[in-house]
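Researcher: Good morning. I'm working through a list of sequences from a screen, and I'd like to move beyond sequence-only analysis. For each chain I'm collecting a predicted structure so we can compare shapes side by side. This is the next one on the list. No need for commentary yet; just the structure.
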Amino acid sequence: WEASDESEESIWTQFSYTAFYTPEAASELHILLPEAGTVLIDDISLQRPGSPAEHIPNGGFESDTTPWLFQGTHVASRRIDTDAHSGSACLELNASGGGDPGVNKIDTDTSTTMVAGTYTVSLWAKWIRGSSKLLTRADSRTLPNLSRMHTLALPAALGTPGRENGARTALRQV
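Model: Good morning. Structure tokens for this chain:
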């Protein structure tokens, strides 16, 4: 048995929030799924309000995934060019299990070191399967720095209760 593929019904959703940051650890942005799943991510931005300076290098994944690190349960994440919110590519965040503050996440160093102050994090995300939650956070050992749990938009009618689903139909055609 495999779950139905409802990815064609998913929509891109923008998430944006502003919060205070206190330097405590490395100047990084972490993104993770708390459970196994796949989510597309594009146009990641980290800026100080009122400043045009962008702190996230390669937030659109247009040419590659440098300097992002894919680790632990999120190591299968990759750049794809079959979908995107804008441009021609995005990141397919693949998690085989739940992420955590350790190595089970993706992250990038900020292009300039963040200092204490207010920052705005924004990104576009599209649910594909599995986890309907997405966590973004600045690296911190004890503080909830720039941390938010986002709820992804899910298709209105998931699955095919009582009917053969798309995964089985595809297998029968082989």
